[in-house]
User: Fold this.
Amino acid sequence: MSRRLRTLAAALFALPLALAAAPSAHAADPTTMTSGFYVDPNSTAKRWVAANPGDGRAPAINAAIANTPMARWFGSWSGTIGTATGAYVGAADHADKLPLLVAYNIYNRDYCGGHSAGGAASPSAYASWIAQFAGGIAGRPAIVILEPDSLADYGCMTQAQIDEREAMLTGALAEFSRQAPNTWVYMDAGNPGWVSAATMARRLHEAGLRQAHGFSLNVSNYFTTAENTAFGNAVNSELSARYGYTKPFVVDTSRNGNGSNGQWCNPAGRRIGTPTRTGGGAEMLLWIKTPGESDGNCGVGTGSTAGQFLPEVAYKMIYGY
Assistant:
């Protein structure tokens, strides 16, 4: 594996210098252990292009989406999870590239939203699943987004359910610390339109943010990079004031090229955003959601299921209409 040093953009460009970042749970920097981000050879976009070479939309989708590095999501559909994560990071490691993974299987997943409901059968089942997830990665470099929406999806939950969820996330972080020393884990922090920065800072901290590398914003949503940067800085200001530390954050830019129109579930008129790279006021700008994948049976994806690739939606996102 090459170890070419790459300068990572400052994690908190817009934050006052007085805010001191908390030490990372891991000393290793996976971005210096690889030669760029990994392109998933089996993404839904890649598979659609391969299966539809004669479709007039295929060249644009192939050029603008399918060959952009983006995350692979892992859940109950992934089979034996340690084998699945191990194979994926192993392929990336062989190519000297940095893989992006999303862990999306928490018990009572999307409990209040409902469009992506599911997850592990119990908290103990989740603990076993996430331990195997981390074990599959082992010492190879990786980036993991931990359970999108899990800390913002509290609206209908009891305090006992919230405590249970936070314990699951804290346990997950412990597994990555123990088994995957070259993985940066980002706890998901929702988006600027969901809960306040003060509320999110408290939830992140209570769920164990000190043990994570950072937090993620805008996963599967549409808010602009500038809006997310302002929100991330506000979360860090709250963390600093209340708990004495800050953390770097990443932004999902896969679908934020036209910003948000206030809708989160397959809104029309959205556009792909800045391809994966470092910088932009955040530690990294990442494609976490695949453009063209449905958010559920809603909006321009009526009749689809969450995660289903919709070529017409993908095609329109390339051009912003």
Q: What stands out?
A: DSSP finds eight helices and eight strands in the chain.
